[in-house]
Amino acid sequence: MEIEVKLKLPDSAAHQKVLSLFSPYHAKTHHQRNTFFDGAAGELSSRRTVLRLRFYENSENVKCMVCLKAKAVIIDGVSRVEEDEEEFDSKIGYECVSNPRKLMEVESRVLKRAKEEFDVAEGGFIGLGGFKNVRNVFEWNGVELEVDETIYDFGTCYEIECESTEPEKVKAMIEALLKENDIDYSYSEVSKFATFRAGKLP
């Protein structure tokens, strides 16, 4: 179970303020490309699950992760989602984006689980599309903060995320700093994937 604090920033100006505020704690920046898949007959989505390939496109050595995410719930800015993830060959990953049926042929623990547990039939997987995300990571007060700029075809969203086993404590800590610096925010109500599927900004 992945538990994350998710706070939505209203616009680019607030996003820039947050980046500036946390700049002394900057650890790294990830340029991510996320592509999603379902079974051709909706085998995953019908059970509130999605398959994701995430590419970290920071350099020539592209890293890829395959992930099965299920039953996401967001309440009061805290997200809980079942997640199973493993590293994936990036060259094969790009081939699967071009030809999703290839996902049926690739050796992978997560893909094997997706096929068997969700009874993905002969129709195989279909691509749903995706979006890009620029993620700035900060090591701050003993936690890892992720500040996201998510670029959809229909607009851009800004968000602060922080994975924690003590989400309420971490959320209060982040909120206090944002209020102290007059930075507007709200609790995220939907996941990035849900926003993508809705085709409009929340």
**How many domains is the backbone divided into?**
1
DSSP helix count? 5
The biggest beta sheet, please? Answer: 8 strands, antiparallel, barrel
**Going by CATH, what is the homologous superfamily?**
Hypothetical Protein Pfu-838710-001
**Biggest sheet, spatial arrangement of strands:** 1-5-4-3-2-6-7-8
In angstroms, what is the radius of gyration?
Answer: 17 Å
Q: Within the CATH hierarchy, at the fold level, what is the topology?
A: Hypothetical Protein Pfu-838710-001
Q: pLDDT average, as an integer?
A: 96
Order of helices and strands: EHEEEEHHEEEHEH
Unreliable segments of 5+ consecutive residues: none
Which second-level CATH architecture applies?
Answer: Beta Barrel
- What portion of the residues fall into strands of 2 or more residues? over 45%
* Structural classification: alpha+beta
CATH class, named: Mainly Beta
Q: How many DSSP E strands?
A: 9
- Ends distance: 25 Å
Shape: globular
As a percent range, the share of helical residues equals: 10-25%
